[in-house]
Sequence to fold (211 residues):
Amino acid sequence: MPPALDLLNLPDADVVALAQQGREPAFRELIRRYERPVFSLIYRMVRDRELAEDLTQDTFVKVLGHIEKYRAEFKFSSWLFKIANNVAIDHLRRRQLDTISMEGSPHATSADIAEATSFELATQTETPLQELEARELGSEIERAISRLRPEYRSCILLRHVEDKSYEEIAATLDLPLGTVKTYIHRARHELRKLLEHVREGGPGPPAEEPA
Fold:
């Protein structure tokens, strides 16, 4: 077994191979590398810090219990995030949550990391009124995302928060590429409907469109 310090410079695949041999320092190194990203992904889904910490722990327990099933031809991060996503979705199916924050992960260690994990509006504000309008629209988007099916919500967050490609989302969620594209298309369609009243300046969500 190489010294623990050597693990810092090994690629994921080599560290995983050591973890598959039962080397505990290797598994601790994987946790060190991915605990924050996994927490961030789960927190975006469940919007509860303590719950996200518990589900992150559950994720790594599952990873440890199934580490021998990981195949080196796949990216370890995709395999890991798939497990994390499944843990979060299983919870969401049991207990539907009310909101999802547009703010970055509470574990962000810098402004850049917080920005990278946030769900931002592609809008540049120039006046206090525009800034207020952007914040109000942000709250509406939070509520709209929270009303999506967990599968749609997961795809939207991976695409627009984690900036994953369709192929990466398919690998992470273990879904066919066509299904991912369909989920994102349907999610965007639902979000447009849910936010129609915002664009029109009306008092509430619109009636369902005819089929």
